[in-house]
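Need a sequence for this fold. Nothing fancy.
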């Protein structure tokens, strides 16, 4: 297989940074090797834990859930756009247009991954959550990406909307109503080129759900760069 694989997924555990008010994931042993000759655990976790996918149903009643998203919309080319990684900063439409000037128009059917570098704070959950002042995507940028025909938007922060956007304007009014999915809590976007990677979104096909944790990986092209 050409290229190399980059894992864009954070591990799940008691220390996983969570949306304020959400409980961290919990694992309880149901069988142990010492007593049952095998290990099995019961997991309790929010659909929106760690690296996860937001389905359109997260904000749109009756819309597609994780199990309804066709596989061809989960294995797609990735476009990586750099964004400011400062507190409260946003990716704007002007920044998307500037990216396109350098790298070409964002193609229909791709996923756009917003690289802020915020995952550098994962080891310090308080700083990662940052009093809900983490970077995100501005409404005008989201509207432009919907117009380009992308299938989803991912980001290396706790959410696609900036933390201070309490009414979730991108989620509620732009992307999810248009049928896009979100990936949130990504890591290692710094290893990806601007163009050329192939994204694999291994989301749990939870029936009737609003989202689910996902194992997300990228296959890089041989030459790298972008």
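Here you go.
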């Amino acid at each position: 297989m050409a290229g190399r694989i980059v894992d864009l997924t954070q591990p799940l555990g008691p220390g996983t940074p969570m949306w304020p008010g959400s409980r961290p994931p919990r694992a309880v042993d149901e069988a142990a090797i010492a007593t049952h000759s095998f290990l099995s655990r019961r997991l309790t976790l929010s659909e929106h834990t760690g690296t996860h996918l937001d389905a359109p149903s997260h904000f749109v009643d009756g819309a597609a859930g994780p199990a309804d998203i066709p596989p061809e919309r989960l294995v797609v080319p990735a476009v990586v756009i750099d964004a400011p990684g400062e507190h409260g900063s946003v990716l704007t439409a002007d920044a998307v247009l500037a990216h396109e000037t350098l790298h070409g128009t964002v193609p229909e059917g791709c996923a756009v991954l917003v690289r802020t570098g915020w995952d550098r704070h994962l080891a310090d959950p308080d700083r990662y959550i940052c009093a809900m002042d983490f970077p995100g995507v501005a409404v005008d940028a989201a509207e432009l990406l919907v117009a380009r025909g992308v299938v989803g938007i991912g980001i290396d922060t706790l959410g696609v909307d900036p933390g201070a956007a309490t009414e979730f304007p991108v989620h509620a009014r732009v992307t999810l109503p248009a049928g896009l999915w979100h990936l949130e809590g990504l890591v290692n976007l710094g290893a990806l080129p601007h163009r050329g990677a192939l994204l694999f979104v291994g989301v749990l096909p939870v029936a009737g759900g609003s989202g689910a944790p996902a194992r997300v990986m990228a296959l890089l092209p041989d030459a790298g760069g972008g």
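For context: The first strand starts at residue 5 and ends at 7.
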